[in-house]
Predict the 3D structure of the following.
Amino acid sequence: NNHSVIPVVIFQPTISLGTLGNVSHGKTTFIYSVTGIRTNKFKNELLQNITVKLGYCDCFILKRHGNFLSSYITTNKSLNVTKYYLFTNRISFIDCPGHDLLLSTMLGGISVANGVLFFIDSSSYFQKKQTFEHIKALVLSPIKKVVIIQTKIDLADTNKIMYQYIQLKNFFYSLKGFRFQFFPFSFLLPLHLSPILKKICKLFNNSMERRYKEFDTVIIRSFNINKPGRNTRDILGGVIGVCIISGNISINKNIEIRPGIVNYEKLTYKPIITKFSNISDMVYKYNSVIPGGLLSLKTNISYQYSKGDLLVGNTMGCIGNLPHVYGYLKIKYKILQKLYYSENRHIIHHSNELTVTKNEILLIHYNSTSANCLVIKVIVFQKKSKSAILLKLYTPLCCNMNKKIAISKLINNKWNLLGWAVTNSGITLEQE
């Protein structure tokens, strides 16, 4: 039964992998070849053949007993382990958009990922502008384990593939603190999948220590599952797509969502108190879950608050244990000066002229939240690379202090990652 309720967390997804890379470099195609699921589900995505919103799916990874050329295989259906197959892991994939106009969506996707699959097209140049934006996002994230996949190897000759491999190896190994693995891939040659799946199972693992910490989760999607014309008596509550960072959760447990409902005139907020009536993924339903992959939580929240990703950017946790909601933030930031793209195809381009000025609009990224803000004051320290700024948030933010966030700046009418910052202090909003 594909929807059987299991009381013990056996086959729950425990690893979340995000995909990074330029547009049309094979991110969605790779996920389809692994899981058999198309993550492009919206009409505009199907028409343009691009990823606009975060795509999501998961699969079981099985290992064949004995010595086979393809020893690792996948399935996305209800698992029936036989004597020929050994269950290895279950992984959730987060398909992040590669377009430069969807930078915030991409950052929200990798904020919940345990690892990254980075895709590079073998038939094109490595020095793509958007590729460097994704590399900067990778540097700013806490992720240190990366699998780099050279796609479309059937469209390039051997010399070009090897030249690009040497170029990629020299560049990525210059980034300190990372673990990189390189693999070739072609959609027409599925035998290449087995070594990639083997390395994914060995490189990425879930720390069981996180399940004993305080409950913390990130909301990455929210939906209204009621179809038009449904009887008012049968209307269901909103559904939230989350990734549990730490702690554990069970059905019928009360939780709090902040900031919830914001009154911009009075500068107050009203948190949403709800409970889960159902916890599930694409195959199973659960009574309780531990930190790991992507899950769907059915709540009793009105669908008016959850439709169209309206809850994305809110923080969810136990009642009374969530951080304050801030309308003003003081942050200490540092500019990334070694990873700016140059039009003459240089890999590393130093840029010291990118600074933050007063009355400038910035975009800050915290977990899955992206908030526009106005620079009210700039405090320059003796070291030019480190400064502090006071920001007025146009969207109230529920966040902890001393947390790392990313900053984007509008350059040539496009948001570009400027650097990283640490939240220092702020002015809170009053709770109704």
Notes: DSSP finds seven helices and 24 strands in the chain. Residues 81 and 207 are 25 Å apart (CA to CA). The two ends are 46 Å apart (CA to CA).
